[in-house]
Amino acid sequence: MKFFARPGKTNQITPLRITAGTLVVLAASAGLTAANSSPDPTPATEPVAKTTSDWNSSAYRGSVQVVRAKDEKVAAKDKTLEGVVFEDSNKNSKQDANEPGLPNVTVSNSRDVVTTDGQGRYKLPVFENMTAFVTQPRGFQVPVDDDNVAQFSYIHLPEGSPKLKYGGIAPTGELPEAVNFPMVRSAATQSPDQSCAIGADVQTYNQKEVEYARKGAFADLAARTDYTGCGALFIGDLVGNDLSVFAQTRELTSMLNGPARFLPGNHDIDFDSLDGVHEFATFRAKLGPEYYSYDTGKTHVVALNTIEYPTKVPAKRSDYTYQLGKQQLEWLRADIAKVPKNKAIVLAGHSPLLEFFYNDEHSTKEVKDIYKILKGREVVSLGGHTHMSENLRKGDLMKGWLDEVGEAGLPFTHLTVPAVAGQWYDGRVTENGYPTSIQRDGTPPGVLTLDIKNSKITERFTPTGGDDNKQMAVGLNTPKYRAWYEENVDKEYGTVPALKNPLSVSRADLAKDTWVTTNFWMGSTGSTVKISLDGKAPVKSVRTQSLTGETALTGAPYSDPVAIAEQFVHGGGLAEKTSHLWRLELPNNLKVGSHTAQVTATDVHGRSFTDKLEFEVTN
């Protein structure tokens, strides 16, 4: 049958405006038919390893196919969106007669979720201001544009958004005859071994900061080829309120060796939209849907919009809260219902579902509903927003979470991803052209990677500069340090004189609590830190937070002296509390002279990292 032959409609080829992330392209001719074959969208064989071919030469570049109706008046009355998901064998972004539709692929209008039939066809209800998108299945890759931004969605907003400072959404016209989603077979997304790069809070306010990001985390990503299949997901606060900088965000993603996807944060908002409908219009037009999902390997990735704005009128920029809203929660429930129980789920949002640092005030409104939807699943949740790292494991508990999780603690791993911007690009600029920007828990800026084997997910932090082996900062917390801290904590950071001889301690001070501190940036419950003093048998350090229902400890005794030394002198945050600091009290009988602390930190996955601290005991 002729797929596009629908009563009262005829096809025409219409050149359309291209909107990044929701690409609209040339329509197909009227003679297009659905292929008779309806293969399983998952290729039959699994590759031994992911492809390592050059991304720039092999990337599938294209766009979503939009077929316009000749009679716009008839189209305006239509309440059903139709289309086909197909294998674009010749990579021309339109379904040719010999290109089969793909069955059992999930498609959504951002509320309802359906799967394609045996010929790859779908039908969805239409409503104003909806975004239709396809969930990329395992073994396939959706197209990317020239900036590597994944193309898998279409906005339906006939009159466009209200006039907004940064453009919003231009009129899309009446409902198309069809919206077709092309994709090609991919050994990279078929492989059970995946590496997914996660970037939080790029948050570039201006061109100077764009250059910091380019020379820092994006240069690191450009040197890697391990994320070609899964791609890179940037989890909000891509810019700093000036949405015109989205153009530079795209310049940065053009450096990548894989698809780029985004979700919005509280600094990606059209703040002049006060109706609670179009606040992410410019984001949607430039970068893609507010929320969606995709499959890679044996993992289902869900990208959520966890920011609600405004909460009152007249609104201020701070008038946002952390919630999904009724429609998005409805979509999430329907989306997860389509996912087989043997798949791992990565649930990403800008703001964390729950967190350690602000455990008594920051939480997603529907967190209990989300936990219920995901019950019995293998899940890792991701958040950013707070500019720090947190590795919270199943069973962890803070006092501020009791209402959400009860005495049992977290139901699955929650990761707070360190910011690409670090402490908002603060601190001294290194010889490599980006700032130290130590965050308020002592973690440097960087990128997180989820290394996935089948359904087992292992997190890997890469500090800006690209050294995966650098996973901790080791320092000395002495009475002298704590006195310096208290003297300067209320001063302007970046103006404080450096502490003299921070790695020396007197014999007298050894009796007043002196610790070797280890800030193990992605350390968690189940991690260990052992220290060998002067070659003697290793001794276990003690984590300052047990995460057994306590409150967050703060102040000089629980601070990271390495981070504080950088922040007080060169600018940055205040690393006075963290969930990943370990301390070993030095014995008070150490001899005068030089000493060495050999540190071995082992994470919950059994990986060990080493560092060394040399210090001096004086009379």
From TrEMBL:
Residues 97-152 form the Calcineurin-like phosphoesterase N-terminal domain. Residues 417-609 form the Calcineurin-like phosphoesterase C-terminal domain. InterPro entries: Calcineurin-like_PHP, Ig-like_fold, Metallo-depent_PP-like, Metallophos_C, Metallophos_N, STPP_CPPED1. GO terms for molecular function: hydrolase activity. Residues 88-97 have a biased composition (Basic and acidic residues). Pfam families: Metallophos, MetallophosC, MetallophosN. Residues 203-388 form the Calcineurin-like phosphoesterase domain. Residues 33-54, 86-109 are annotated as: Disordered. Residues 1-34 form the signal peptide. Keywords: Signal. This is Calcineurin-like phosphoesterase family protein. SUPFAM superfamilies: Hypothetical protein PA1324, Metallo-dependent phosphatases. It comes from the Bacteria. It comes from Glutamicibacter ectropisis. GO terms for biological process: carbohydrate metabolic process.
